[in-house]
Amino acid sequence: MKLPASMEVFERGWLSSNNILFTGRNETALVDSGYATHAAQTVALVEHALQGRPLDRLVNTHLHSDHCGGNAALQRRFLCRTAIPASEAAKVQTWNEDELTYEATGQQCERFRFEETLTPGDVITLGDLPWQVLGAPGHDPHSLVFFCPDEGILISADALWEHGFGVVFPELEGESGFAEVRATLDMIAALDVKLVIPGHGAPFSNIGKALETAYSRLAYFAADPARNAQNAIKVLLKFLLLEKQSLPLAQVPQLMSEMYLFGEANRRFLHQDEHALAQWAVEQLVRVGAAEVSGEALRNRD
Q1: Which domain range does residue 118 map to?
Q2: In the predicted model, is pLDDT for residue 1 greater than 90?
Q3: 163 occurs within a structural domain
Q4: Greatest pairwise CA separation for the chain in angstroms
Q5: Residue 24, pLDDT above cutoff 90
Q6: Cα of 231 vs its chain's centroid, Å
């Protein structure tokens, strides 16, 4: 399916979320801004694509660091207005890094400002097209997705990927998450979606197959929440490795133990020695080819 002329997708690696650029007649906008360590690249991509036009508006689906880590850099370069989920406004206003999960996940995000908030039920104009703002809790309680009925396009963030969805983080802290993932998938299934632009990975049009995969994955995690915890620990280590590219093996247990969510996942579900659990995570990434051990270092593999 061909995108409207006013839309362009920057498919990023898994450290940074995809960015969607809109060039309307009267306004330009970008949905999500990637991770902090890619901020200069994000600015360069947007500058090149806009060909001298300003970036008027920046919109975030949710405030995980890989989706908003380039906000501050884009704000400095373009002085763009920024819209975030309304339920996150107080945390950003006071810059509470604990509640924003940056400390909990061992990730970084430069402080940014916002001028607008978005609430499920809103309709916004992007690229001269109307987009419905829909709540999509599960992976993140505050996540939004955007649907354009005129084109059948869904910007799904981490609520639906071609082969699954993002880690169900609320469950790691003893909060409900699996039920919310199911409700979000049911909502997406009820829409007339022809193309999904996910937060990570290439856009795809086989919506039925993606939903089938997502429902199956959800059932697997919900049947034994320890599986979700194990997946989260692997993802936390992989994200750290994507950022650093190489880590001293001896430092991995300490780096992991400094992440609040690593400790919570272990305390609630896995009940293992932290050093042994970190070693297990290393072994799992190596086993699937996502990392390799080279001498005394753990190195990233794409």
Answers
A1: 7-223
A2: no
A3: yes
A4: 58
A5: yes
A6: 15
